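Memo to structure team: turn this sequence into structure tokens by end of day. - J.P.
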Amino acid sequence: MLHIVACIKQVPDTKIIKMNPKTNTMDRSSAPAILNPYDAHAVEEAVRLKNRYGGTVSVLTMGPPPAVKAIRKCIEIGADEGYMITDRAFAGADTLATSYALTKALEKIGKSRSIDLIICGKMTIDGDTGQVGPGIARRLDIPPLTSVKKVVEINKEKGYAIVHRKLEDGYEVVQSTLPCLFSVEKEINEVPYAPLPNMIRAARYQPHIWSVDDLEDVDRTLLGLKGSPTIVSKVWPPEKPKGGEMLTGTPKEQAERIISLLLERKELFRAKEELG
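Reply from structure team:
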């Protein structure tokens, strides 16, 4: 029976969020909080593996108290248990400090029941770094398999997993020992609508909530801002692209205009290359 832990995060909906022009930071209050979309696919894949091989799916997150909503969303998808670490000591954590805190929580979970597989989303939409999953794997000294697009086989008895990893020009087949960590692509599955029994269970579910004092052998200098060597000095929205040219006239005139524009662009590129 497999024990799979999916690491998740509650994030602001980046389709709606606004930027604060004075501080150059994201105004998180301007957008609703949602389960990170990549993490939803990670949880869905964990549930599919549970249904395929038998076992239990736990989810783990670090965040403020309202992040329990993300855990309940995972229960809707089909997870069995949810864990959250929340404490002011975790505030301001970068990816290095986040991976450390989550690792300590995973070690605590693993003491009650050994973990066979950890699954993360490829990245979070509010950070886009993709560093936390591999960071956890490095701290736990287990193999990280990134950009997983398909799980071919999990064999707990023989202690291995086989997956397809996405590449720019195809995919590669990789076999790894267990336990290991997957960070998954969105294309690995489709997340269906939750069945009513799952929704009812999620509405009533109370996750396990731990503070920093509930974790063992924690070096507080590695948490939060103190443990974060990276600092985001400035964030700004990308410039809006300029509008295109609307072509008019006869088909012949439009074709001539397209050729003219292409030649102009070619000359521009050539000039840039000559300037170095």
